[in-house]
Amino acid sequence: xxxxxxxxxxxxxxxxxxxxxxxxxxxxxxxxxxxxxxxxxxxxxxxxxxxxxxxxxxxxxxxxxxxxxxxxxxxxxxxxxxxxxxxxxxxxxxxxxxxxxxxxxxxxxxxxxxxxxxxxxxxxxxxxxxxxxxxxxxxxxxxxxxxxxxxxxxxxxxxxxxxxxxxxxxxxxxxxxxxxxxxxxxxxxxxxxxxxxxxxxxxxxxxxxxxxxxxxxxxxxxxxxxxxxxxxxxxxxxxxxxxxxxxxxxxxxxxxxxxxxxxxxxxxxxxxxxxxxxxxxxxxxxxxxxxxxxxxxxxxxxxxxxxxxxxxxxxxxxxxxxxxxxxxxxxxxxxxxxxxxxxxxxxxxxxxxxxxxxxxxxxxxxxx
Length: 368
Ligand SMILES: Nc1ncnc2c1ncn2[C@@H]1O[C@H](COP(=O)(O)OP(=O)(O)OP(=O)(O)O)[C@@H](O)[C@H]1O
Prior knowledge:
By secondary structure, the chain is of the alpha+beta class. The protein is built from 9 helices and 22 strands. Strands 7-8-9-3-10-11 form a 6-stranded mixed β-sheet, sandwiched between helices.
C-alpha cells in the first residue's frame, strides 16, 4: 500500500505548558524531533497518536482527517493506524514473538495462517526469525526492540512513531538496532516521526529535523544543514560533535575534497551516504600537514577561538565543493599560545582514524 503525507498543526495545553507546532512529513521521510527535556517532544507525539487532545488543530494523512477541532473531529487512537515503537518493547508477555507480531494483522481480519506467515516474514526482515517461538521474558532488550519493530510494521500503519527507541538499550545493543532501523526505515514509504535525545539517531535515521524549545519549533530543516549550521543554542550544544557527511568507501568517506578514514561503527554500504563523527577533544592542530602519518589531516581556516573552561574551542571552516564544512577542536590554552593561533590562520585539523566513527547516513542533504 502506498502512503500519504502527514500534515499536523496543533496547540496542546498541559497544565501551564503549551505546545504550538506544525509539521509536514512526506511518505518515506523520517523527521527527528529534538529538544531539551520538557520542550514538548512527547506531547507532540501523543497528539499525533491521539492519546492527548489538542486545544485546537488539524491532523491529517492525505485526505483522511484524524483531527479537526473546528469541525469536532477527533479520531480515537485505535482507529488512527499508528505504529508505535517506544523505549521499551511492551510486548504481550504471554504470547510468543511470532504471535506478538501476528496480533496486528489478525486484528485487521487476516486468517490465523496468513497473519502468522506475515509475522514470520517481518521477523526475518528485522533479523529476528530465530526468535519466533520465544516468549518476551526470554528476549534481551535489543531482541525485544526488534520484535517490537516487526510488530509495529506488520500492522501496516499509516504513520510510524518512534519514541526514543534506542534509549533503553545498552551501549552494545544500540548500534545494531540503529543500523537495523536505518535499513528498515530507508526501505519503507510511510511518514515517520522519531523523538530522540541523541544527535547520532538524527544523523543516521532522519531526513529532516525539527527542534523544539519551550513548546515552540525553533529550528527545522534537512538534518545535515541544521546540524552543520545550528542556529539555536540547544542545537549547537547537541551538535557539539564534529560531523562530516559524504559518500562511503572502503575505510571511510569522501566529502568533496576531504577524505576521512575511520572505524565502521555501523555497517555502511560503499557509494552510499555516510557520516563521520568525532569529538572536538580528539582533534590535534598542526601548522604543517603531518608527513607520512596515517592520521586524517584536514586543511581549515580558523574562524573562532573561544575559551571553554580548561580548553579552548577552535572553530574552523574548510571549503568542499563550494560548501563550508565547519569543524571544532578543543585544545589547551598552552597549545594555542605555542602555535600562535589567530583567527584567519590556515592550519591542519588532525584526527586518528580510530577516533572517528563511520555511520550510515540518511539523506538529509541540502540537495533537492
Ligand atoms: N500530564 C501532564 N500534565 C501536566 N503537565 C504535563 C503533563 N505531561 C507533561 N506535562 C508538561 O508538559 C511539558 C512538556 O513535556 P513533554 O513530556 O512533552 O516534554 P519532552 O520534550 O518530551 O521532555 P523529555 O525529553 O523529558 O521527555 C513539561 O513541562 C511537562 O511538565
